[in-house]
Design goal:
Distance between the termini: 37 Å
Largest sheet: 11 strands, mixed
Oligomer: single chain
CATH topology of the largest domain: Fumarylacetoacetate hydrolase, domain 2
Structural class: alpha+beta
Number of domains: 2
Length: about 300
C-alpha cells in the first residue's frame, strides 16, 4: 500500500491510502474497521486530525488495523477519492529526525573526487525543508549554486536501537522519493554541510510512502533525474556503498531511531556541481525525479 497526505480545495491535509482499488481516506477506513469489529487504537484520532503519518506509526496496535486494510478493501469502502480533485502534500511532514547520508554511491564519490568513505558521512535536515511532490521550491537569495540530488528515502516504522544488519529491515516501514536540494556555495563554506541543506523547501518528498514489502529489495531500484526534460542522473541502488540495512543498523548504534524518522540515503552521479562547468538550477527550471516502484516527483524552482 501507499500512504499519502492529501487535501481537497482549502481543507486541511488528511491521511490517505492507495490500494489496488483506489485512493481512500484513512480515517474513513478506520471508521469502517471499527464498525466491523476491529479494536480501538488509543490516540489514533489525533494522528488523523494532524494528518500525521508519524503519529499514526507511533500508535500501539496500528499494525492490526493496517493489516486489515491490506487484506481487504472492504474496510475502506465506499469512499474512493477522485485523485484529479485533490492536492498531494509530502507524505510525512513532521519527522522527529531527518538524517542525510553523504557520498553513498560509488559513482557519486568518484565524480566529486572523494575516496570511498570508511563510515557513512552524516548531516541533517529539519521539517522546514520538507515540501510536497509538486510544490514550487524557492531559490534562496543568498545562493547562486543550488543543486539537485535524487535520493531513496527510508521511513522508519518501529523503534530501532542497536539493531543488527540482519534485523534492520524489520524496523523499516517504507520508502519515498526525496530531492536533497543543496546550496553548494553555502554547503562548503565550512567543514559542516548543514548551511547548504536546511533552507525552507529544500527536501521535496513523495508522492507517497510505499510499504517496504511492496518494493522488494531496496538494492534493485533505478533512480532518474530530469532537468527541463534533460536526463541528468541515471543510477541504481546497487551502487550504494552502505545499503539500507547497513545504514539503519549503523544509525541505530548512534541514536534510537523512532517511527516516522526519515533517512535520505545518498545520490548517484550526475549532480550539477560535477558538470564542467557546473550546471546549477535557475528560476523556472523544472526538476523531475523518479525511483522505479516508488514514485515520481516534479518541482519548479523559482526566484524569491
Amino acid at each position: 500500500m501507499e500512504f499519502l497526505r492529501y487535501k481537497v480545495a482549502q481543507d486541511r491535509y488528511r491521511l490517505g491510502v492507495r490500494t489496488p482499488e483506489g485512493l481512500y481516506d484513512l480515517a474513513g477506513c478506520y471508521s469502517r474497521y471499527r464498525e466491523q469489529g476491529g479494536g480501538a487504537i488509543p490516540g489514533i484520532a489525533r494522528a488523523f486530525a494532524q494528518g500525521s503519518l508519524r503519529a499514526l506509526l507511533e500508535r500501539p496496535g496500528v499494525s492490526a488495523f493496517l493489516e486489515a486494510v491490506r487484506l481487504s478493501d472492504a474496510h475502506c469502502r465506499p469512499a474512493v477519492l477522485n485523485e484529479d480533485a485533490v492536492t498531494f502534500g509530502p507524505p510525512l511532514h513532521d519527522p522527529g529526525r531527518f538524517i542525510g547520508i553523504g557520498l553513498n554511491y560509488r559513482c557519486h564519490a568518484r565524480e566529486m573526487g572523494h575516496p570511498i568513505p570508511s563510515e557513512p558521512p552524516l548531516f541533517a535536515k529539519w521539517a522546514n525543508a520538507i515540501s510536497g511532490p509538486g510544490d514550487d521550491v524557492i531559490l534562496p537569495a543568498n545562493s547562486q549554486a543550488v543543486d539537485y540530488e535524487i535520493e531513496l528515502g527510508v521511513v522508519m516504522g518501529r523503534r530501532a536501537r542497536g539493531v543488527s544488519v540482519n534485523d534492520a529491515l524489520d524496523h523499516v516501514f517504507g520508502y519515498t522519493v526525496i530531492n536533497d536540494v543543496s546550496a553548494r556555495d553555502l554547503q562548503f563554506r565550512t567543514s559542516q554541510w548543514l548551511a547548504g541543506k536546511i533552507a525552507d523547501g529544500f527536501a521535496p518528498m513523495g508522492p507517497a510512502v510505499v510499504e517496504r514489502d511492496d518494493i522488494g529489495p531496496s538494492q534493485g531500484l533505478t533512480l532518474e533525474t530530469w532537468v527541463n526534460g534533460e536526463l541528468r542522473q541515471h543510477g541504481h541502488t546497487s551502487d550504494m556503498i552502505y545499503d539500507v540495512p547497513a545504514l539503519v543498523s549503523y544509525l541505530s548504534h548512534l541514536i534510537t531511531l523512532e517511527p516516522g524518522d526519515v533517512i535520505a540515503t545518498g545520490t548517484p552521479a550526475g549532480v550539477g556541481m560535477s558538470r564542467k562547468p557546473p550546471r546549477y538550477l535557475n528560476s523556472g527550471d523544472v526538476v523531475r525525479m523518479r525511483i522505479a516502484g516508488v514514485g515520481t516527483i516534479e518541482n519548479r524552482f523559482r526566484a524569491p
